[in-house]
Amino acid sequence: MATKNTTKSGESGAESPATASQTLVRGLNVIEAVAKEPASDIGIIAERTGMTYSTAHRIVSVLMKRQYLKRVPGKGYRLGRKILALGFQAYGQVEITRAARPVMERLSRETSDTIHLACEEQGMVFYLDKIASRRPVEITSRVGGMKPLITTGVGKALLLDGTVESWLELYDREARKLGVKINRKQWLALMQSYAQAGHTYDLGEDEPSIHCVAAPIRDGSHTIIAAISVSSTLAYMPRERMQALVPVVIEAAAQITAELGG
Q1: Rounded distance, CA 149 to CA 188, Å?
Q2: What are the φ/ψ torsions at residue 79 (nearest 5 degrees)?
Q3: Angle between helices 53-65 and 42-49 (to 10 degrees)
Q4: What is the pLDDT at residue 91?
Q5: What is the pLDDT of residues 62-78, one digit of tens each?
Q6: Side-chain half-sphere exposure of 114, counting CA atoms within 13 A
Q7: Do 124 and 114 meet the contact criterion of CB atoms below 8 Å apart?
Q8: β-sheet with 200-203: strand ranges across
Q9: Do 152 and 249 fall into the same domain?
């Protein structure tokens, strides 16, 4: 006789949002406790975090499996390689911002438009830096904010090294977010033309009244790690001006790439 797979509460599936949130907080508490000082055993971690031994043991086990913690024989629990990798990634973002800032300030002076610097995080555009327009223009992006890759100029610039399959997969997953009507064939042709040209446009896909020109930034291995853009409203960004800005934005991206060893 078949039995139904349930939790103790009689419900199947994952943790409730409240339980999942509590587990996340406890996991972060464990990481922070070990970061301050390595712990010789789980009992010490439990004491530092105010958890029961069994709860601390369960969380430590998961963190070790995901390589956020490691156990060194004779020395106890320490931060794992995943933390180190994330630290380098965060440091890299800081370095990109530092290298890009002078170029962004120059672009701002030359164009009077909004300048964005962004990278990809969790399949989204993540804004690392922004210089607001000196014109009476309001753009909803913010530093630390996120937007879809598919709708933004910087997002499409981050995708330029993708494959036909990856572009179509993104379209199938997120086409509903586009602010203008673009069918699958048009989207693919657009991305192929952008990849060949080395720059991208936002033609109102994110906000109907906003257009932008964007270009990718690369590291020493020629991998795209960020993108820079110049954005404004239609009143200040007709197609002719966008075309004139293409070499300006590409040169700005090249300067930042050179600063990063690319």
Answers
A1: 14
A2: -65, 140
A3: 110
A4: 63
A5: 999 999 999 998 889 99
A6: 24
A7: no
A8: 146-148, 124-131, 114-121, 224-233, 210-218, 200-203
A9: yes
pLDDT digits (tens, 9 = 90+) for 18-38: 777 888 899 999 999 999 889
**Which residues make Cβ contacts (< 8 Å) with residue 29, sequence separation at least 6?**
49, 51
Structural domain boundaries, residue 197: 88-259
- Confirm whether 7 is domain-assigned: no
136 and 213 share a domain? Answer: yes
Nearest to 232 by CA among 250, 255, 249: 249
> What are the distances in angstroms from CA 54 to CA 21, 43, 76?
18, 9, 18
Evaluate whether residue 189 is within a structural domain: yes
- 172 pLDDT band (50/70/90 cuts)? very high
Q: What angle do CA 122, 193, 243 make, to 5 degrees?
A: 100
**How many other C-beta atoms are found inside a 10 Å radius of the C-beta of residue 103?**
20
What is the per-residue pLDDT for 75? 86
Percent composition of the chain: helix, strand, coil (DSSP 3-state, to 5)? 50, 20, 30
Q: Which of 218, 219, 216 is nearest to 249 (CA)?
A: 216
